[in-house]
Design brief:
The complex is a heterodimer of chains A (120) and B (107). Chain A has 120 residues and is mainly β. Chain A has no helices and 11 strands. In chain A, strands 2, 4, 5, 6, 9, 10 and 11 form a 7-stranded mixed sheet that branches. In chain A, strands 1-3-8-7 form a 4-stranded antiparallel sheet, with no helix packed on it. In chain A, a hairpin with a 4-residue loop joins strand 7 and strand 8. Chain A is globular and about 40 Å long. The N and C termini of chain A lie far apart (39 Å). By secondary structure, chain B is mostly beta strands. Chain B is globular and about 35 Å long. In chain B, strands 2, 4, 5, 6, 9, 10 and 11 form a 7-stranded mixed sheet that branches. In chain B, strands 1-3-8-7 form a 4-stranded antiparallel sheet, with no helix packed on it. Classes of the chains: A mainly beta (120), B mainly beta (107).
Chain lengths: 120, 107
């Protein structure tokens, strides 16, 4: 059974870069799309983007965040990561990683989420 | 981006009740609509994909219907373990977008 676990600092200063990692256990990271979502308090879920890795690596980012987001994969560690630069208080949210079951943005496995607060 | 509007934002029902949640898209999305359940402190769970297909392992009391712009998630007989927030998601176009959620509570 595939499980996902997000990790990263819970507090990030304004203008700095938020870095999160998602560890995949119980299955291989290769051959799937892996996504990041977030949910600010009192607001809806927002798709940040996704990364695919097999023999090649492919990315899709939300246009609203594309200028600030970078995603990567560490296949030997079965991990994928996200960096969000120049953060502001508006980036405070619960961040989720998830597996896209078939490349159609249907997320069949999710992490529990990690809370990130942007504050000085 | 396609806007997804869920209603109601919250509801209170008795155990055994039939519960219906609606989701409306700002434009036609064919059947590219999924439903998720999120319980406090737990990972979200895929319930329904492409409007009406039940994800493996999900109880049969959950069902989905609709196409175009209007969709529904139905719980045929509300159980205590169904207390959660439910979200719809369109995957017709990128970026995929989610509804605001419907919180289901026991009356």
């Amino acid at each position: 059974q595939v499980q996902l676990q997000e990790s990263g600092p819970g507090l990030v200063k304004p203008s700095e870069t938020l870095s999160l990692t998602c560890t995949v256990s119980g299955g291989s990271i290769s051959g799937y799309f892996w996504s990041w979502m977030r949910q600010p308090a009192g607001k809806g879920l927002e798709w940040i983007g996704r990364i695919y890795t097999n023999e090649i690596t492919n990315y899709n980012y939300n246009p609203s965040l594309k200028s600030r987001v970078t995603m990567s994969v560490d296949t030997p560690k079965n991990q994928f990561s996200m960096k969000l630069s120049s953060v502001t208080a508006a980036d405070t949210a619960i961040y989720y990683c998830a597996r896209d079951r078939d490349g159609n943005n249907v997320m069949d496995v999710w992490g529990q989420g990690t809370t990130v607060t942007v504050s000085s | 981006d396609i806007q997804m509007t869920q209603s109601p934002s919250s509801l209170s029902a008795s155990l055994g009740d039939r519960v219906t949640i609606t989701c409306r898209a700002s434009q036609s999305i064919s059947s590219y609509l999924n439903w998720y359940q999120r319980k406090p402190g737990k990972a979200p769970n895929l319930l329904i994909y492409v409007a009406s297909s039940l994800q493996s392992g999900v109880p049969s009391r959950f069902s989905g219907s609709g196409s175009g712009t209007d969709f529904t998630l139905t719980i045929s007989s509300l159980q205590p373990e169904d207390i959660a927030t439910y979200y719809c998601q369109q995957t017709y176009s990128t970026p995929p977008t989610f509804g605001g959620g419907t919180k289901v509570e026991i009356k």
